[in-house]
Each structure stands twice: as C-alpha cells, then as structure tokens.
Design a protein that fits this description.
There is one protein chain. By secondary structure, this protein is mainly α. It has one domain. The chain is built from two helices and no strands. The longest helix is centred in the N-terminal third of the chain and has 35 residues. It comes from Allorhizobium taibaishanense. This is Amino acid transporter. Keywords: Membrane, Transmembrane, Transmembrane helix.
Length: about 80
C-alpha cells in the first residue's frame, strides 16, 4: 500500500507544480510578451501590470511550495 500512497502523493504534488507553472506563464510571461510586441503608444498604464504580475508570482510561489510540502508525506 505504501507504493500506491507514494505515487498518489507524487501525482498531487506534480499537479500543484504544473498549476504554479501555468500561473507564471499566464500571469507574467504572456503579458511581458504582449507588451514587447505592442506599439509603445498602446502601453498606457504600467502599474496595473506590475500589481497583476506580483499577484500571479505570489500565486505561483504558493502553489509550488504547496507541492513541495505535499512531497514530505512520502513514506
């Protein structure tokens, strides 16, 4: 039963880590890429972008650390 428990634990931890990667991609990398390919006159407000990126980074960090914490349950 320990092998099954370990595999389920790794599966859940990997799901959290993939979710953190998605948060980083959607919330930080995609807006940066969009800003790079948008004309300079179209980029008006930087503050909402920065605040949003900080929130997405925080969410990614929390999810990643949650996945690491779940891995501590391995037997």
């Amino acid at each position: 039963m320990t092998v099954v428990h370990n595999e389920r634990t790794k599966f859940v931890a990997n799901a959290f880590d993939r979710a953190s990667t998605s948060c980083l991609t959607v919330g930080v990398f995609a807006p940066i890429a969009a800003a790079l390919y948008t004309p300079a006159t179209a980029v008006a407000h930087v503050l909402p972008f920065i605040l949003s990126a900080i929130c997405w980074l925080f969410a990614a960090a929390v999810l990643h650390l949650s996945g690491r914490r779940i891995l501590r349950r391995l037997q």
